[in-house]
Amino acid sequence: MEHEQVYRGQSVMWGTVLPSRVVYLIEARSTDGFRQAVRTACSRWGGVGELIIGVDPDEGVSVPDQRLVGLADLEAAANVNLSGDRAMAAAETLGMPLVDVSQLGTHPATCYSYPLAAFAGGDQLLMAQEDAPLWQVAAAGDQPFEEPLQIPVRRAMQDTEIGRAQSFWYATLVEGSSYQFREHSSADVANTSAVIWIVDHADPLADCLEFWNMRALRPRRELTRIPLLLLPHRDVESWHAFKDHVHAFLARHGERNVDVVLRSNSVEEAHLHRLAATWELQQQTAQNLSFGIPAPWVDAAVRTPPFMYTVNLDPSRWLAVQRDWGLRQDFDVHTFTDRPTGVRFRSPVRLQHRAQVLVRLTGEALDGLPRHRSVAQRIHPDAQWRGEHLQVGVVTDSDVVLELNLPSLEAATTQLLNSLVTRWELSDKGRIGTALLAQSPAHALLEPYRYRAVMELFTPRSKELHKKLAAAAAEGSDQAQLLELAQKWGGRARRRYRQAKELAPKAFAVEAAEHLCALDWAERGLEAACTHCGSKTFVPLPDTVPDARCPGCSAPARYTSNKESIVTYYRLDTFIDQAADQGVLPHLMAVAKLKQLKPHSHLIPGVNLYFNDQGQGEADIIGTYGGRLLAGEVKTSPGDFTEKQVDHDTRISISLGADIHLMASIYSIDKEARAYAQAACRAHRMELMVLDNLQAEEPDSH
Q1: pLDDT tens-digit profile of 596-615?
Q2: Quick count: other Cβ atoms within 10 Å of Cβ 313?
Q3: For 436-482, what is each residue's pLDDT tens digit?
Q4: Which range marks the domain in which residue 91 is found?
């Protein structure tokens, strides 16, 4: 049994190998900063997928640039030539660690892209001419000044070389240094229009930046590649036979009515149209533009002249989309919770010699674990979460070998709570609820009429006593009457028992009561009625004897019967009876519903929380919900979700740093309470989850 608890079995994991890419922060309108950023990117594996953004001295990082960085899935911001304060402010805006550009090779967030020679394909790569114009640097890349690259490179003899080389994959330094870097999945895999930027020598930076960043985000898999070129205004018109070159790369599979977009931030549209005429392109004037059918498009016809063009259409709509970067490899793993789990797989990136790379792991073994720093570092001391992936930097030349300490969901949730509060403990309801969850599944309460059956069988004590005493006192009852009432409701030693026909609805009463018995939540029995003292007693079926006797006076008794037979009664188990009286069952129903939605979850039905400087709080539900921290409140009566109560509940979730705040109730929560809670959660970037009407829809009785 112990072995079964610690060995979780064999499952499939995925390992993705990728570089630690960055965004370079440069002074707005700084061509020197741009050149330095490009040279640095060209010395790093995956540099073609790194962004460069200009930071305005007054406005900081623009909103469009923030969006691009959010899509690019980068590790850090690299300061190229900003002042320290401005660089820090820009990095904070982007929500990224700041690294000086000179420290990229040694900083733990950015060093997993070296050495470049380990990843290169071996072909000689083309780079910009000596003292080249900016467009050449952006299009082909340039060599760093500090130390020569350990890969074969050569400078272009003529600018036409760079113009033509951009149409071939891995021909230039900036592309070739990113050999084996591509996405394994994409939010958009459409076969879309090529884009050609035309840049003026007098003001090239805006076009060079836009081209660089769009190229960084474009798809890189062979079947989804999109031609992107950066060409010099006027010079390109004199390039020999370049029209034929343009036609060659526009002859692509796909159904579209725009083959290429001519775009420029520095050249007037009239010049773009003139250039299109030189290349014998035909302008598309239709109102509805078609950019291509979803991949794969190999069955579509190859486009032929006349090729259609339009000008200055924003290409970010099909280039700046979410992609999952890196090459992936699947492998089997045997997982344990009491010892390290060994992970070993062949790197999908072929390496010439030892190199530093990032590895991202995903799979069932990690499902549901809290995506929190403390849990990541428990699994591996150098690990961090990146979305749903566990990321670790490794040094390897072939196989990726790791040891992971994988906790159970319960252990991971416990560790997470320990890291968030000074201390915590199960509340009274939490103790009862946790014990019940350990004994039997709570999802039975979500089945039709099960909760209702329990509530009609339970013995009212605490809450019912409080209500009855309050009502009696309001009616002017004297002390003797109050004492009699307290003895009746609060001092009962005997639990309530009932016939199935006394439960509602009658059509499903027996089914519900029998299900409770099958769960050991209730028991069947007979009622022994004493003819001497008049008392009536529940006798469990196993304890019945032919000659019934009163347990009080020992006089002969008889079992209650009707015209047809002896009557069967049902009585709740003592523990279930107590749980119902204490209001624990709605907590368990919420837990069951959440686990139906996200099976890889661990939720605790009630805890007391002690914060370092914010006092004490209580959460009815807290735990890991599909890898996210959830906390919140459960009410039997939705009317209890007053504004004051919601403020109190959300304040606790905010103090915990919860990802999700829960409002749950047996019955429907009104729109006003939902809206008030939603506003409170939105103000703190916390998701609101509402679970109401926890009782299952009642089946048709016909």
Answers
A1: 999 999 999 999 999 987 67
A2: 18
A3: 999 888 899 999 999 999 999 998 876 555 666 666 667 766 666 65
A4: 18-323
Do 215 and 303 reside in the same domain of the chain?
A: yes
**Alpha carbon distance 331, 367 (integer Å):** 16
Residues 568 and 593 in one domain: no
Q: What is the pLDDT of residue 701?
A: 39
Q: Are 77 and 87 in contact (CB under 8 A)?
A: yes
CA nearest neighbour of 103 among 19, 40, 56, 58: 40
Q: What are phi and psi of 683, to 5 degrees?
A: -65, -20
pLDDT at residue 699, as a whole number = 47
Q: What percent of the chain has pLDDT over 70?
A: 92
Q: Are residues 197 and 300 in the same domain?
A: yes
In angstroms, the CA 126 to CA 155 distance is 6
- Among 382, 406, 430, the domain boundary falls at 406
Q: State the pLDDT at residue 491.
A: 47
Can you tell me the distance from the alpha carbon of 516 to that of 494, in angstroms, rounded to the nearest whole number?
A: 19
Strand ranges in 80-227 using DSSP code E only, listed in sequence order:
98-100, 125-127, 153-155, 183-186, 194-199
Are 622 and 669 found together in one domain? Answer: yes
Same domain for 525 and 656: no
The two structure tokens encoding residue 159? 């600018």
Please report, for the domain that includes residue 632, its CATH number: 3.40.1350
pTM for the predicted model, two decimal places: 0.87
What DSSP state is assigned to residue 214?
A: H
Residue 654 has pLDDT above 60, yes or no: yes
Structural element, H or E, at residue 261: strand 260-263
| CB proximity list for 376: less than 8 A, separation 6 or greater | 383, 384, 385, 390
What single DSSP character describes residue 42?
T
